[in-house]
Amino acid sequence: MIITNAIIGGGAGDLHLWYQLNGQQVENSNAIQTVSSENEVSTTFTQLIVEIKQGDYLEIVYSSTNSQLGLQTVVVDGQPTGAALTVTIFREPNCHN
Q: How far is Cα 52 from Cα 64, in angstroms, rounded to an integer?
């Protein structure tokens, strides 16, 4: 299982985030997050269960309807800076590959 959390901001519009495995789009992996204004910051959370074999590669891809809208790091005085994108990967415990 792959879990992705993205912080989105910088402009108003829709951001699409999806996965590609070995350069091919993974079906049903697209998540769409709408940001209403340039002053808004939002998050999107996705989960994917996919078999990944030795030699495979996984990409996280995004596009947006506004060139100013994208992944954004949020900085708050006195607090640690958060990552714009975090990825967590779990291996199936019964997998022997």
A: 27
Q: Which long-range contacts (CB under 8 A, 24 or more apart) does 49-52 make?
A: 49/1, 49/2, 50/2, 50/19, 50/21, 50/26, 52/21
Gap between the Cα atoms of 88 and 63, Å rounded: 21
- The pTM of this model reads 0.84
**CB-CB neighbours of 12 under 10 Å:** 16
DSSP code at position 12: S
Tokens representing 2 are 């792959």
What pLDDT digit, counting tens, does each position of 16-72 carry?
999 999 999 999 999 999 999 999 999 999 999 998 899 999 999 999 999 999 999
Element (H, E) at 70: strand 70-71
